[in-house]
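BUG: 3D viewer hangs when loading the predicted structure for this chain

Environment: internal workstation, default settings.
Expected: structure renders.
Actual: progress bar stalls at 90%.

Input used:
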Amino acid sequence: MKCMLSLILAVLAGSGLPAAQGQTLQPDLAKASRGEGWTIQNRGISLLEEAGRQCVRLDEKPGDGAAWLEGAGFSEGTIEVDLRGKDVFQRSFVGIAFHGLDEKTYDAVYFRPFNFRSEDPARRSHAVQYISHPANTWQRLRSEHPGAYEKPIEPPPDPTVWFHARIVVRGPKVSVFVNDAREPSLVVERLSDRKGGRIGLWVGNGSGGDFSGFRITPAE
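Structure tokens produced before the viewer hung:
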């Protein structure tokens, strides 16, 4: 209960929403673009407006990057976000980081849009990925546990347009749903023993990405 209340109060400090247990919270992405209430790691960030949709874009740079929500912790619950990458091989890695301690220690779920509709079955099987840095990188997980921490997405989204991700963190389990799918594309047991930590928007090495509709619903 204390963890959930801490999350609500912390996120509300940046969102302006009234506090209520179990309420879905929507942090202000416009503030992220101004560097207010967010810590931007290894990226430039800009605000976009598209057909009434407010979104932010993290630019492309070497190394991983993130926009961390300041003062907010996340333990368990549901994270939702709309994401847009691009269909360029090895240049689009977009997702959410959570249970973060610092810039190098966090869990994340991310997507490789360039693999969504690849004609190569092996590439399609690498569409959505779970990692737990620093120990469990995608390279180590693919080498030591092939097929366990990355999966295809069915039906595969268009790699050039917005898609919706719902990430459910409950106890040791992480389940990832894409668009309107009733069944998860990925279900894993977490590889860290952290009970909580900070949360943010995440992009991988050399990748940018667009984010909109970021919402957090703490578990009751």
